[in-house]
Amino acid sequence: MSKRVLVVGDVMTDVIVRPEGPVVIGSDRRAAIETRPGGSGANQAVWLGAAGVEVAFAARVGMVDKASHEGRFRLCGVTPYLAGDEKLHSGMLVTLVDPSGERSFLTDRGANLNLSAEDLPDSLLDNTGLLLVSGYSFFAPGPRAAVQSLLSRARRRGTQIAIDPASIGFLGEVGPSVFLGWVGMADWIFANADEAEMLTGTADLALQMERLGAQFKSVVIKRGRDGATVGSKGGIELSRPAPVVPVVDTTGAGDAFAAGFIAALMAPLQLEMCLERGIENGARAVQHVGGQPGRL
Length: 296
Fold this sequence. Notes:
By secondary structure, the chain is of the alpha/beta class.
């Protein structure tokens, strides 16, 4: 699988807030506040670029920011295909990070909500070996129709498809059966432990593999501090632990994992090495603030 990876998802500016203690309702709390480039799809594309993978990224941004976003993606080794929106601004996300590194989000998806089929032409699939779609694209009607059209075209071409559910909050709003119906059959799913439990209705890892494996050929479950597991409808195939590292911010750790795994898959390397590369990338991600490598 030496072809490129095409990522479709959101572009966001992350405003990362790390309060010194609990938020005081109606009053002040000192905090460290930083801005970082973000968005689940954008994070995945940049991590793939950092791994040396040929990667393209398709999304929609505010027209005023289009050139600057394109320049930054190119500097990160990503070929951008960004549509400019003249009405909506680029997406923004406020991330509240507690002392343990756990995150809560406030999201304004902005121009991402206007992603259309015209933004995702057939030419994007040329020389594409794997299409990675962020689950956020399914949670609004316009983007959902756009990515469903692209997925149909990818299936006709025989392009591998990977899905990252992306948001336990939005999954809970629409319900697992609705989300899985929107997605359809695919080759890979990269779900975290909470998403896997919600999508399957069970906390049993083997049952999660079996149930998700009925729709996805290969199932990867990201388990945070417990590492990650790969399987299929036949059950668990491989599990690996995560290294013990200092956790600064877990933003983008799942995106980094997916990118590390897919980079190894495209090499191509054995499944065990794909899992290890994903875990290594996730461990790197939690040791700095922001969802992308270093201070990009």
